[in-house]
Each structure stands twice: as C-alpha cells, then as structure tokens.
Design brief:
Layout (H helix, E strand, L loop, with lengths): L2 E5 L5 H11 L5 H13 L4 E8 L5 E10 L10 E9 L8 H15 L5 E2 L7 H9 L22
Parallel strand pairs: 4-5
Antiparallel strand pairs: 1-2, 2-3, 3-4
Helix pairs in contact: 1-2
Length: 155
C-alpha cells in the first residue's frame, strides 16, 4: 500500500465525517459536519491533513493541528496542538499515524512553533502509548470539572 499525506479538501468531507464519527461516537454528526466544513473552508486556521491510499483513493486517517497560545508543559508560544488524530483500525500499526503527526509537526514549524502538544483521555491507553512511542512526553494528568451556573442548589 502506498500512502500519501496531503491537505484535506472539500472532496474529503464525507469520508472525514465518517472518521470523525468513529473518533467521537457520542458527538452530534451535524455539529461535526459544520465544524468540518468550516475547517475545510479556512485551511489557514488549521493544519488539516488526510492519509490517502494511492492505490484506490480511500482515506485511511486524518490529523487536525491548530495553534494555541499555551499548552500544558510547553515553554513557548504559540504551540502547535494536535486537536484530532485518527487512523482507521484496519490500517493501524503501518506507520500512517506517524506520517500524519509528521505533517502536523511540519505545519506547526511553518507557523513559527518550536513545540507541538496533544492530549488524550486518561483511560485512552492506546492513544497515550502511541503518542509516547512517537516521542511525545507526558507533562501532566488532570481531572476536569464543570458546574452549571443555573443549578438550583449551590455547594
């Protein structure tokens, strides 16, 4: 299989949506579609890349990078940030994820970044292990909280 990583385009929208729904199964598909559309319309705001099988044109995965002013454990600003990263299960362990991350890193360098950061849910051991394998360093573990400002009782 010959894999090429390239910038995502409008023609990728349907396949990207399928992969996004697989990555975030609890998300609203219509919201993902709108977000996807916005990122494809304004590619300068995000590094949005797809891995494509050159033999049949099928998309195998994607990565979305963005700029953040800060990121946990980083010393510079801005910081490239891996907002989303997905490789189809049937083609994992073939170097596709590494190719996608390399594209996000190069995009981040071109935006003036000297660091790239990412995150993973604390129970997502697969993502944590893959990121460590690719050279990411774990910088912190946090638990996040929320509280509605409109709740009837207060703590």
């Amino acid at each position: 299989m010959i894999v090429k990583v390239r910038h995502a385009s409008q023609k990728d929208a349907a396949e990207l949506l399928q992969m996004m729904c697989a990555l975030w199964p609890l998300a609203n598909p219509n919201e993902l579609r709108m977000e996807n559309h916005e990122h494809l319309r304004h590619p300068t705001n995000h590094g949005f890349f797809v891995a494509e099988n050159q033999e049949d044109g099928a998309l195998l995965g994607f990565v979305e990078a963005a700029l953040r002013s800060t990121a946990e454990g980083c010393d510079s600003s801005p910081v490239g940030y891996v907002e989303a990263w997905y490789v189809k299960p049937e083609v994992r362990r073939k170097g596709i994820g590494e190719l996608l991350i390399a594209s996000a890193e190069e995009w981040s360098r071109l935006q003036g970044c000297s660091e790239i950061a990412s995150d993973a849910e604390i129970e997502n051991h697969l993502s944590i292990n893959v990121q460590k394998k690719l050279g990411f360093e774990e910088t912190a573990r946090i638990v996040t909280f929320r509280r509605s400002l409109y709740s009837k009782s207060s703590a």
